[in-house]
Design goal:
15 helices; cell membrane; C-N_Hydrolase; Apolipo_AcylTrfase; 495 residues; 16% strand; seven-stranded mixed beta sheet; acyltransferase; 2 domains; Nitrilase/N-carbamoyl-D-aminoacid amidohydrolase; transferase; alpha/beta
Length: 495
């Protein structure tokens, strides 16, 4: 294998250490700088495509291979097929950095700053595409690695995660492409880096949102029910009792049980069960939110959240379902003959569901995978004062999935200027503050409750107003600036 491809693979693997649980955020810049440095010596777009593909394949195989656990250990897919499925999926994800590399090498011209802008704009746009195409898979978008204490975290309330990705790529490319021994290019490079550092410092001092109402006492419950046992009929009574017992032990203004904490349809629960589950919270003058499967009169099944207690009962149905796990894309019925995934024929909830009104707070629910899509979460703003995610990551065992998902929640809190509450089955149950800091977290794979006071917030960040539009416009603008020399040269040749 050529040295360039080896270096690209190393750079892709290194990128994973920028994310949780390692949190060495500057390795994100190191990884993309190394990739850009390799591309500097590549002349053919075809060779560049291979280089970017190898970077992406290494990054995603190292970063999201925990999907194998869901397919093989809990889904029952044979080991070779599960391994092949993960390799093919990561190969698909690797196409996005591959196209970035190919287009960059094909059209780069001009100064180092102009070329860096072209690379950053391409990176940003293709990450947006990855987060949208075929319902999207934005996991490991590079911007997620830049949660505090990264100086780029301050840009999240303005540009969102994709904008942060673009800034990271820009800094990395400036470092890799600038001829630092030449005075003028070096001065321009330092000016860019210093300007972003100063801008991030002052943005970090801006308060985009403000407290709303009084703090409330919250109990975020972690049930820690093993995925391999959750759906066994002989254990159902035990799991029902576990939920009641935990709710009884941890009454509060708001008590939260995780996604699908009751492993059956709500209309099949024993008579009086939901009343017993809600009784402790109601007695304390509060409310309980739990994850449960609901069925409507037409027979459609929803992965939902249900509130019970002092406030009127309300529901939220998951809108952004997981392909293959919660519904079958067209022509993929054969997939379900290879795996055994309970409740895998679900229906999407309505697009614009209002926040739950619980006491003085308005709580916007998102379920598991939904919090990867910041542009969808901001639909609940400015009404929502709190964000609440309920998840079940037991599907992925003891892996990077839990800390990576918590890091994603930190980015959502930054983007919206709202606290993000998380109640999970096996981890990581936590409270994330509007500045992206983690105020409290339970150890993974332990049963218990995080008892903590939570303050609601109101107001809008720039990202909450405009979503990904500002980042996309910035990315497209830098691409056009980067393409200008090539366009000018073509015009002159044709004149």
């Amino acid at each position: 294998m050529p040295v360039a491809l080896i270096l690209s693979a190393v750079a892709g693997a290194v990128s994973v250490f920028a994310f949780a649980p390692f949190d060495v955020f500057f390795l994100g810049q190191v990884s993309l700088a190394l990739l850009t440095r390799v591309l500097r010596g590549v002349q053919s777009p075809r060779e560049a495509f291979r280089t970017g593909f190898v970077w992406g394949l290494a990054a995603f195989l190292c970063g999201v291979s925990w999907l194998y656990i869901a397919l093989h250990r809990f889904g029952g897919m044979p080991m070779p097929l599960a391994g092949l499925a993960i390799v093919l999926f990561c190969a698909y994800l690797a196409l996005f950095p591959a196209f970035v590399a190919a287009f960059f090498v094909r059209f780069r011209q001009g100064s180092a700053i102009r070329q860096a802008g072209l690379f950053a704009g391409l990176w940003l746009v293709f990450e947006v595409l990855r987060g949208w195409l075929f319902t999207g898979f934005p996991w490991l978008a590079m911007g997620y690695s830049q949660t505090p204490p990264s100086p780029l975290a301050s840009f999240a309330p303005v540009l969102g995660v994709y904008g942060v990705s673009g800034l990271l790529a820009f800094v990395a490319a400036v470092v890799a492409l600038t001829p630092w021994r030449q005075v003028r290019p070096a001065a321009a490079g330092w000016m860019v880096i210093i300007s972003l550092g100063v801008g991030g410092h002052y943005l970090g001092r801006v308060t985009w949102t403000e407290p709303a109402g009084k703090p409330i006492d919250v109990a975020l419950i972690q049930t820690n029910i093993e995925q391999g046992l959750k759906w066994r009929p002989e254990r159902l009574a035990e799991w029902l009792e576990t939920n009641v017992q935990l709710a009884r032990e941890h009454s509060a203004d708001l008590v939260v049980l995780p996604e699908t904490t009751l492993p059956l349809l709500a209309d099949r629960l024993p008579d009086g069960y939901l009343e017993a589950l809600a009784a402790p919270a109601r007695a304390a003058g509060g409310d309980l939110v739990l994850g449960v499967f609901l069925r409507d009169t037409g027979g459609a099944i929803y992965n939902a959240a249900l509130s019970l207690g002092t406030s009127p009962s309300q529901t939220y149905a998951k809108q952004h379902l997981v392909p293959f796990g919660e519904y079958s894309p067209p022509f993929f019925d054969w997939f379900y003959r290879l795996v055994d995934i309970p409740m895998s024929d679900q229906t999407r909830g309505a697009k614009n569901q209002p926040p739950m009104r619980l006491g003085e707070q308005r709580v916007a629910i998102n379920i598991c995978y939904e919090d990867l899509f910041g542009s969808e979460l901001i639909r609940s703003l400015p009404e929502a004062t709190l964000l609440l995610n309920i998840s079940n990551l037991a599907w992925y065992g003891d892996s990077f999935a839990q800390p990576q998902h918590l890091q994603i929640a930190r980015m959502r809190a930054l983007e919206t200027g709202r606290p993000m509450l998380r109640s999970t089955n096996t981890g990581m149950t936590a409270l994330v503050q509007p500045d992206g800091s983690v105020a409290g977290v339970l150890p993974a794979f332990e049963q218990g409750a995080l008892r903590i006071a939570v303050q609601g917030y109101e107001g809008l960040t720039p990202y909450a107003r405009w979503g990904d539009a500002m980042a996309l416009l910035l990315g497209l603008a830098t691409i056009l600036i980067g393409l200008a020399p090539a366009i000018r040269a073509r015009v002159l040749r044709s004149a």
